[in-house]
Amino acid sequence: MFEFKHISVDETASRWQQQTAVIADIRDEQSYAAGHIDGAWHLTSASLPAFMQQHGFATPVVVVCYHGNSSQGAAQYLAQQGFDEVYSMDGGMALWQLHHPVKRADD
C-alpha cells in the first residue's frame, strides 16, 4: 500500500535539523523565493525527474506547501512512485514561518 503520513511542523523541524529527511517544497517559484526551509528542494513538474534520480526511494521525504493541503496530493504521488516514507507537513509554510527560520532567495 502506497500511503503518505502526516507530520507536524515541529517534527519536520527535528528531521530538518538532524538531516534525516529531504524537504520538498511544491509552492510556486515566487513563494519559494520569498521564503522556504533552508535546503528544501523546490519540487516542480520540471524538477521531479532530477529529484527522483538524486534521492533514493528509501530517503524520507517531507512535502511542504502553503497550508498543508496541496502537499497531501504530492505526497501521495511520491508514495505511489515508490518512496517508502513520505509525509505531508500539516500547516504548511504558513505555520512553519511562525516558529522557524526561512531562507530567502536574496539571503
Write the SSE topology.
Elements: E1 5-7, H1 9-18, E2 22-25, H2 29-34, E3 41-42, H3 48-54, E4 61-64, H4 70-81, E5 86-89, H5 92-99
Parallel strand pairs: 1-5, 2-3, 2-4, 4-5
The N- and C-terminal alpha carbons lie at a distance of: 41 Å
| CATH H-level homologous superfamily name | Rhodanese-like domain
CATH fold assignment: Oxidized Rhodanese, domain 1
**What is the typical, i.e. mean, pLDDT?**
95
Pfam family, one: Rhodanese
InterPro entries: GlpE_sulfurtransferase (IPR050229), Rhodanese-like_dom (IPR001763), Rhodanese-like_dom_sf (IPR036873), Thiosulf_sulfurTrfase (IPR023695)
Family: Belongs to the GlpE family.
Keywords: Cytoplasm, Transferase
Protein traits:
globular, five-stranded parallel beta sheet, alpha/beta, 16% strand, 107 residues, Oxidized Rhodanese, domain 1
Describe this structure in words.
- Belongs to the GlpE family.
- Keywords: Cytoplasm, Transferase.
- GO terms for molecular function: thiosulfate-cyanide sulfurtransferase activity; thiosulfate-thioredoxin sulfurtransferase activity.
- It is an enzyme of class 2 (transferase).
- InterPro entries: GlpE_sulfurtransferase (IPR050229), Rhodanese-like_dom (IPR001763), Rhodanese-like_dom_sf (IPR036873), Thiosulf_sulfurTrfase (IPR023695).
- Helices cover 40% and strands 16% of the residues.
- It has 107 residues and is α/β, with parallel strands linked by helices.
- It has a single domain (5-97), classed as Oxidized Rhodanese, domain 1.
- A 5-stranded parallel beta sheet has the order 1-5-4-2-3.
- The longest helix is centred in the last third of the chain and has 12 residues, at 70-81.
- The protein is globular, with a radius of gyration of 12 Å.
- The model has no long low-confidence stretch (mean pLDDT 95).
